[in-house]
Write the structure tokens for this entry.
Amino acid sequence: MTAPVIAYNTFVVAVGVAAVGFAAGVVGSLCVLRKRALVGDAAAHATLVGVACGFLVTGRRDLATLLAAALVSAVAGLGAMVLLRRFTRTRDDAAIAIVIGVSFGLGITLVSGIPAWGYADSAGLEQFLLGHTAALTAADATLLASVACVAAIVVAIGLKEATLVAFDAAFAAASGWPVAVIDYLLVALVAVMVVAGLPAVGAVLVTALVVIPPVAARFWTDRVGTMLLLAGVIGLVAALVGVAVSAMRPGLATGPLVVLAAAAIFGVSFLIAPERGWIARRIRARTLADAWSRGLALDACLRAAGAGDGTFTPVDVEAAVAGDRQGGRRAGAEAFAALVRTAAVAPVAGGRDAWRLTAAGRALAEERRRRLDAWARVIEHDPDDAREALTIDLPAPGAVLGRTGAGS
Amino acid sequence: MNAAASGPSPASSSARPPLVDFHDVTVAYGRRPVVWNVDFEIDEPCLFGIIGPNGAGKSTLLKAALGLVPTVGGSVRFGGRPLREVRSRVGYVPQRETVDWDFPVNVMDVVLMGTYARLGWFRRPGARERELARASLDRVGLADLADRQIGRLSGGQQQRVFLARALAQEADIYFLDEPMAGVDMRSQEGIFRVLADLRAAGRLVIVVHHDLRTAAEWFDRVALIDMRLVATGPTAAVLTPENLRRTYAGHIEVLEELGRAVAARGRTS
Amino acid sequence: MVFDPSKNGLWCVWAAGGIACLAVAVAASGCGGTAGPSGRGRPRVVATTTVVADLVKQVGGDRVDVDCLMAAGIDPHSYKPTPRDADRLAGADLVVASGLHLEGKLAELLERLARARPVVMVGDSLPPDRLITVGGGQHDPHVWFDARLWSLGVAPVAEALARLDPPEADEYRERGRAYVARLEALDDRLGERIAAIPAGRRVLVTAHDAFRYFGRAYGIEVVGVQGTSTESEAGLGDINRLVDLVVTRGIPAIFVETSVSDRNVEALREGARARGHDVALGGRLHSDSLGGAGSGAETLEAALESNVATIVDGLKGAP
């Protein structure tokens, strides 16, 4: 039988890991919105103890048993965290650190110690640290996919309640919603996803799978539903990329590759997302600053046009723009260059470095003056209106003021 | 320890239990009491202000009424019943800082949240809820900002979104916690107008407020709180220099000035 | 932290408690078995793995006390020594290790021990030109699978025992020579049995690359899922490569090892099955460790015989 296009093992692993990636992104979004991102980390580090104890108690090494035991210990770790906060006034971050340190230390001791202490069949527990996708069978992948589906469905059903509690817990409580219960359910869901992620990426990295996709998704959308879906898609794509790359070359572990893929998607989102991406923000800021500088330059030209012989040199205009600012000279030079480009100023013939304002330039400068005066009157008369409508790029007051419905 | 109102008390029919009854409420954070034995009643729908200096425990009193903080002693009853029986009739506008305004929701999403309690578990808002939300937005003058992400609103606009959400709750009793904090004058007046409309429609509106001047202008009745109840009753009767001195000890001249201003203006309902 | 006189009493309690804990910890680390060298009596030998422990027992017989650090079934590649192990090793008259970095995490400890007492690294005493190199300039340490090669390591152990216990020197040397002879005879037998497997099926697929020497000595091709050390992680790509190999070569059986996780092997079988090739689980091989008591593989000879029997059954038997 000739080799298939996609190897069977690759396909099985891809299905399992992609499902987990999707669900982890969705559940993680709720976690991030609720500002509980580190809870996943605490749960993840607490799972090792469960894996080890599960093996010790039952003597079995199948994935279902060990993951069930991991879930129990993850929930126990989270419970310990809650008790710490409630009864000993330990702060959130300290409580998380304590749980992580103690449970992980205990977990590592057990997981490396059990094989060393001579328990039969105990080799392989350490694989839960960094994942072992190479060893996933079809039954394992089915288990993971089912858990992922159930988790995603639970989120879809309870999205309204989860969003309400994440956005305004006080209002939710006052309206009668059992905020604590909803919080615990969310935490339990995160624990489940963390445990499901163990075979895929391991205890050390699974937090990344729960946190990175939502944060990346946030750059692209302003709606909760879209963010959740997008986070799921990002998790899924990262999983597929990680699996594909590790399947192509020998000696590559899947888990870290999945996380790297997710991080790459985050990096790209951070840079190029429209509106919230870094590049977009920089461009916006630059554009606004440049527009303002151009306005200042125009004004300086208008002033100069009304004095003496009506000409001016670029240096004068640049100085007016630069003022005492950092980088002002450059801003001034660029502003003047922009005026030249848009034919707002033209050189005077005769060899001197003298310029004058063109008709178009004059019109622009005078319109700007008019708007400034109008806004100054608005600010004087009603600063609240101005606060709601005035922006750096000086819109025409009349058009803008009617829209905001300021007052009643 | 309670100072009863010195003005003529409204004719409260003893057959009906008061709309809201703060009964010997004491709240403590750890060992320190923040609210001490506050006891007063509100019998009729009106615009009711809870006034006091910073740190007086006004917000805490409100939260205690809503079950958000536990009381060490005393209780708050609504028409003789505990809160959990009448939740659907109580609306709440919390302080603005409690919320992360970068949350990915728009104005309409937030106002719809006011309808969730009536929808119950797992049901999604439908046409009726959307209509109600739109109407609420209209009343606060934010109808054309329904699609805007809440982080892009001004302070006053954000407060009005919260108010619209409370309106969507369709409650009989509204609690507002410092709704005018950091809000421009124009929006404040707008909000007060909406509250007055609610009062005219027969609702009880209880507002924790810090500005004495606007308090004197807008509220029918007030309770002066500084950890304990100093006085309660019709606004003009309560906001006397004597009471204000007892509450705001240390700002004598300002208070005398205010007291005179209040007396001169009077309060016409 | 402000020293508050009113809280003085509480502070003293905490200080006392802390000192008490410290004292207990110090005392506990002190005890635990440094009973000291045995002086005049039987030489105490501590061996690291079961394989070298067997070697020492064969040469020393009843005359020596052999203590084995790692129990049967333990993976020597990843074994981390405990303080108690350090004590046991320190109390030995002679330490015998497999060497060639098999006991990867004991290297430093063994180096230190060598300064105060004789340490024999069996693998290191073999002629380097007979060793197989793996990536990174290292040698494959699983030399005991080549019985003849392993027998070259018997003499150094016999000599070390002779030096330690001169009255019995001749005895040790004699037993050593006898053991070498047995190993050489074993070597011939194993070679014959393997040769009986049809040439096309003579491929040994196991959990990790422990059988290179075995393959070279007895004429069978060996492929491991993980690399030479179990510390390296098997990736998805490795599994795919092996499924390909198993299917295209029509290999009838693959084998698991007693001290290595068999989860990868299960995934491999599933992958082959999906392509229509049923590969059987040939059985458990003893690789980095001998069998425990009652397993029938308590000595190296027994383990090798058992391995070969399992392999022959697995590869020959399937249709």
